[in-house]
Amino acid sequence: MEIKRILFATDFSEGSSNALSYAVDIAKQYGAKLFFVHVIYDVAKTAGWYVPHVSIDEMYKDIEKSAKAELEKSFIEEMRGFKGIEHVVLKGTPYEEICRFAEDNKIDIIVLGTHGRKGIDRMIFGSTAEQVVRHAPCPVLSVRLPKHSK
Ligand code: AMP
Question: What is the pTM of this model?
Fold first, then answer.
């Protein structure tokens, strides 16, 4: 088995933070590159009606900037000295973008949490973990929160 490229999908929730140490450990053991991926929901797609482009483009620039900053803040001790990390912000439906990125970038394994945020987006899009497992072009490691923290 060869693991050279790992995709870690994060929505900055407790569920995904809990999965991070698995992604980092695997990356270190295999000397793999680790992609930190966050997907911004595409509001225009969700709304299903016309949204003026100028305002929406401006809004996305801001969200993208904050998402990048948030990704860079996701640091755990195990990452100290580890250089092979790339931060990626995508826009669209999370499971579709995660699977497309995995396909386009020859990802060997996807690591994510079994639980994410529980907001309106979850109601609209359903479970990202479930959909990624169903559609991913590679193996998926979905990490549950430890029992005591549920
Ligand atoms: P969910 O199935 O939606 O509760 O989310 C499960 C896991 O999918 C989270 O713990 C994250 O690892 C990942 N995930 C959910 N939403 C996103 C997103 N917008 N971008 C990247 N990863 C996500």
Answer: 0.88
